[in-house]
């Protein structure tokens, strides 16, 4: 039976939800939102995309944090503003052409062409930024990376070679 991309995505999000809940209960740390580890786990073979996503999240966090020094931003407003700013930052990063030396692309040939680099999702940077704001940057990044690796390991056990074809 052939496994489709949708089945792997669905499984990844479900496993990510379970792992996020476990991390939250065991360590008291959120992994950047409940669905984020599942999405990040699917992109662990694309480190440039992950770095761009984390940069977008950090820029989002810094922009909203800076705005909050002269505006009253709390609760739902802060959450929605993080999502919106993350969306805008993602759009701006998509407009930046990525140039690198020829040696870099030979070394990272398996990662993809420069035009295929991009931020993961539209809401993911905002969700990560929300948790950076709530619990700290280092704590969020540590929990996110660890939980994404756990999700990826479970996906490898369940889907095996089908996951490598993505």
How would you describe this protein?
This protein is 70% helix and 0% strand. The protein is globular. The protein has 8 helices and no strands. Helix 2 (36-42) crosses helix 7. The model is unreliable at 109-114 (pLDDT under 50). The chain is an all-alpha fold and 166 residues long. The chain has one domain.
Key attributes of the depicted protein:
single chain; 166 residues; mainly alpha; 8 helices
Q: Any idea what the shape is?
A: globular
In N-to-C order, the SSE pattern is HHHHHHHH
Count of runs of 4 or more consecutive helical residues: 8
- Give the count of structural domains: 1
List the helices and strands and how they pair.
Blueprint: H1 5-27, H2 36-42, H3 47-67, H4 75-94, H5 102-107, H6 124-135, H7 137-159, H8 161-164
Helix pairs in contact: 1-2, 1-7, 2-7, 3-4, 3-6, 4-6, 6-7
State the gist of this model.
This protein is mostly helical and 166 residues long. 70% of the residues lie in helices and 0% in strands.
């Amino acid at each position: 039976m052939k496994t489709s991309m949708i089945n792997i995505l669905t499984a990844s999000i479900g496993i990510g939800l379970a792992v996020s809940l476990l991390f939250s209960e065991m360590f008291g740390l959120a992994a950047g939102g409940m669905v984020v580890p599942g999405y990040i786990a699917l992109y662990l073979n694309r480190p440039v995309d992950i770095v761009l996503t984390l940069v977008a999240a950090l820029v989002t966090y810094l922009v909203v944090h800076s705005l909050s020094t002269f505006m009253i931003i709390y609760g739902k407003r802060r959450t929605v503003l993080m999502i919106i700013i993350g969306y805008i930052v993602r759009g701006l990063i998509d407009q930046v052409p990525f140039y690198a030396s020829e040696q870099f692309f030979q070394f990272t040939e398996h990662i993809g062409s420069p035009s295929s680099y991009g931020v993961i999702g539209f809401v993911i940077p905002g969700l990560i930024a929300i948790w950076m704001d709530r619990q700290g940057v280092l704590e969020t990044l540590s929990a996110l990376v660890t939980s994404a690796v756990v999700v990826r390991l479970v996906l490898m056990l369940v889907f095996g070679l089908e996951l490598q074809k993505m």
